[in-house]
Specification:
heterodimer, A: 570 residues, alpha+beta, Immunoglobulin-like, four-stranded antiparallel beta sheet, three-stranded mixed beta sheet, 25 helices, 7 strands, 8% strand, B: 147 residues, alpha/beta, Rossmann fold, five-stranded parallel beta sheet, 20% strand, globular
Chain lengths: 570, 147
């Protein structure tokens, strides 16, 4: 026991200090100077390198040859462009050699007359140079590592963060050591890898974590749950939709795991006071949490990923997604009432003593902090909504709000560090690097081409495919890596399918990825957390139990939200 | 005065364990202690950093579960005590057993192979040995029923 505690303590110290340092170092590493175009006083050769789909290829090495002599070198920028200075004597037998890892190299002859007579500052255009993807051994190695990471997360053999770190380390091992054996095992170097980390996502999640950490200490959830109990006056059929609504609204603004951590124990107490099976409240609540989290940009990590990638604003999520989510929620409430009707009907107050105990547990513990969090939360909401007009990204709003609340509540620095779930932030950073490798070697392009062939230019078919594949995959694998991997695929489809510029496919991915979590017990982290709490109360939720109730819920909610999206974007 | 420690988790499967403990307390006249152990190991793979968030709420949930057992004991004329602890189940049972000088330790034993078993067969034998050697007490396992 003592050894166990000491280890836990050491682990706690490690998490408290090492992980924050890890996050900060990574942040500054991404600030390394980007490759810049050389300054060129003379005439210049300008061109662009793109892939078969016409997307820019960054980081391609462009070499200008004159006969057997190299006369200039450049690297393509993020938009695929390159600029090469031209030497003053006329170039004879000139050509460009363009090469990049994971692509076939090309040789582009440059006609002599094109290069003749260039004046200082004049740009001679080469035009678009197309590179074809090449499936290297790195492709298969990365695919294996990605699947291994998903399997480790799904099996629960390792902590999610540990699984992602293992994936990242293997990627670097293959890239750095593997290429010594076989050059084609090169994936990317460290400098390129850290540029795949999306800091907007990291800071938004961190800001919201700090805010939530303060709100959760106030006892507001327990108070709300008990208020629901009093409002329903012991009528469980009425209590259920109220608790689902509280859980759902909370999940739209806070993370779903925290919402269920706070709602589940008090819900168990309410159910026991009513002499009913707590699962009749807990399972619908966690499903409501998974469904309603989709309604806002900050409701789920998958929405945060989608918003950052596709530049979708807080208001756009509300306009395009919230009505569909409310429709799905209504369907879920009706479904839950039907499924649990016998339990709800049989509920009856057990004893006044238990209600008294319940009341003692359900009080606001820190009204001052709650009031302050309320004001700051309202301000943050306003900034989220107005963000686009005043050019403030959600990450900045979350960070400002969290800092303001920390200063106002006067939480000390130790408590603040404990409030942030650093393991989750490291999980995201590691995940971004693994997904970056998946993109780099062309796996995403391969998947996008396969889906593109299937859906053609049919937007409705593409929407249904993205939404239902998202729902099915998210029911069996962690929806965060799935969404992160699917985003470039959806980006590619959006660029090619007429009408998809409305970003309809991104909303479909959001619905599928989040609501798909209701399909199985392992489909979403809140499900597992709720099952853990229920089991500790003597009411285990088995995989089969959840599947029987969750799968129909998945079909109902995804169908209803999907109907809205098809109607809205038709 | 020595006592009886009855560790429970709540739920329909604990009913028989609670009843056995109440019956034993009535028969022997020894004080009865209902114990609930908060164990948050299930958060280790998905939300390890949230242990601090949940531990107080789980403690309160444990108190609630024990309050219901206590009420049942009172209805049968037994005045039971309730104790909530946090940590490893076996360690906390033994700790309380030592504190109260328990003669009997009563725990539920779910159906074989069921996923919510607290003690596997080997762990149960080891626990029984520790109860005997460290407390000089008798371990009573009650086969739990229910779905």
């Amino acid at each position: 026991m003592n050894t166990y505690r000491v280890n836990r303590h050491r682990m706690g110290t490690y998490v408290r200090w090492v992980l924050p340092v890890f996050v900060i170092v990574a942040f500054f590493l991404t600030g390394l100077p980007a490759r810049s175009a050389p300054s060129t006083p003379g005439p210049v050769l300008v061109g662009r390198v793109s892939d078969r789909e016409g997307r820019p290829v960054e980081g391609a090495r462009v070499t200008l040859w004159a006969g057997e002599r190299v006369v200039g070198e450049a690297e393509t920028q993020a938009d695929g462009s390159f600029t090469l200075p031209l030497s003053s004597p006329p170039l004879v037998d000139a050509h460009l050699h363009v090469e990049r890892a994971h692509y076939h190299s090309v040789r582009v002859p440059l006609p002599e007359e094109k290069l003749r007579g260039g004046r200082a500052g004049e740009a001679l255009l080469v035009g678009d140079i197309r590179l074809e993807r090449r499936r290297t051994p790195a492709f298969w190695a990365t695919l294996l590592i990605f699947l291994l990471m998903l399997a480790l997360i799904a099996s629960g053999r390792l902590h999610n963060t540990m699984a992602a770190l293992v994936g990242t380390s293997l990627i670097f091992l293959v890239s750095y050591l593997g290429r010594l054996i076989l050059p084609d095992l090169f994936i990317f170097d460290f400098e390129d890898a850290v540029h795949f980390i999306d800091w907007e996502v990291i800071f938004l999640i961190m800001g919201m974590m700090i805010y939530i950490a303060i709100v959760e200490r106030t006892g507001i959830f327990q108070w709300l749950a008990f208020a629901a109990y009093r409002l329903a006056r012991g009528r469980a059929w009425l209590l259920l939709p109220i608790l689902m609504a509280i859980t759902g609204v909370a999940s739209a603004f806070l993370d779903n795991v925290t919402t269920m951590l706070l709602m589940a124990p008090i819900s168990v107490e309410i159910a026991l006071a009513l002499n009913m099976n707590p699962l009749a409240l807990l399972v619908p609540e966690v499903m409501a949490s998974n469904v309603m989290g989709v309604s806002t940009l900050i409701g789920t990590p998958t929405n945060i990923l989608i918003a950052s990638y596709a530049h979708i604003t807080f208001d756009e999520f509300i306009v395009h997604l919230t009505p569909g989510v409310l429709l799905a929620f209504t369907g879920l409430v009706i479904y839950s009432e039907v499924v649990y009707w016998n339990d709800l009907k049989a509920a009856a107050l057990l004893s006044p003593e238990l209600v008294q105990t319940l009341a003692e547990h359900a009080h606001i513990t820190d009204p001052v902090a709650l009031r302050k969090a309320g004001w700051i939360g309202a301000g943050m909401l306003l900034l989220f909504v107005l963000g686009e007009q005043i050019h403030i990204v959600p990450a900045v709003t979350a960070l400002i709000g969290a800092t303001a609340l920390l200063l106002w509540v006067r939480l000390d620095i130790e408590e603040m560090i404990e409030a942030v779930d650093w393991t989750t932030l490291v999980f995201f950073m590691s995940l971004f690097i693994v997904i970056g490798a998946v993109r780099e070697v062309g796996i995403i392009d391969t998947v996008a081409q396969a889906i593109g062939k299937f859906v053609g230019t049919n937007l409705t078919l593409a929407m249904l495919t993205v939404m239902w594949s998202g729902a099915i995959f998210s029911a069996v694998v962690d929806n965060i890596p799935f969404t992160a991997a699917m985003l470039p695929v959806v980006g590619s489809l959006t660029a090619h399918i007429p009408g998809a510029e409305s970003k309809a496919l991104y909303y479909c991915l959001s619905v599928g990825a989040a609501m798909g979590g209701n399909g199985t017990l392992i489909g979403a982290s809140p499900n597992l957390v709720t099952a853990g709490i229920a089991e500790r109360a003597g009411y285990p939720i088995t995989y089969t139990y959840f599947l029987k109730r969750g799968l129909p819920a998945l079909i109902i909610t995804v169908s209803l939200a999907g109907l809205w999206l098809l109607f809205h974007f038709r | 005065m020595p006592g009886i420690v009855c560790a429970i988790r709540g739920g329909p499967r604990s009913e028989r364990t609670i009843e056995e403990a109440i019956e034993l307390a009535r028969r022997t006249g020894e004080p009865l202690y209902f114990l609930y152990v908060v164990n948050l190991d299930f958060l280790s793979h998905s939300a390890s950093s949230r242990v601090h968030t949940l531990s107080e709420d789980m403690r309160e949930m444990g108190e609630f579960i024990l309050a219901s057992a206590k009420a049942k004991a009172r209805r049968k004329g037994v005045d039971a005590h309730t104790v909530v602890r946090q940590g490893r189940v076996a360690d906390e049972i033994l700790r309380l057993g030592k504190e109260v000088g328990a003669h009997y330790i009563i725990i539920g034993r779910p159906r074989e192979g069921h996923e919510d078993n607290v003690f596997e067969e080997t762990a149960l034998s080891e626990f029984e040995r520790r109860v005997r050697e460290e407390l000089g007490a008798q371990l009573i396992t009650v086969r739990e029923e229910g779905k």
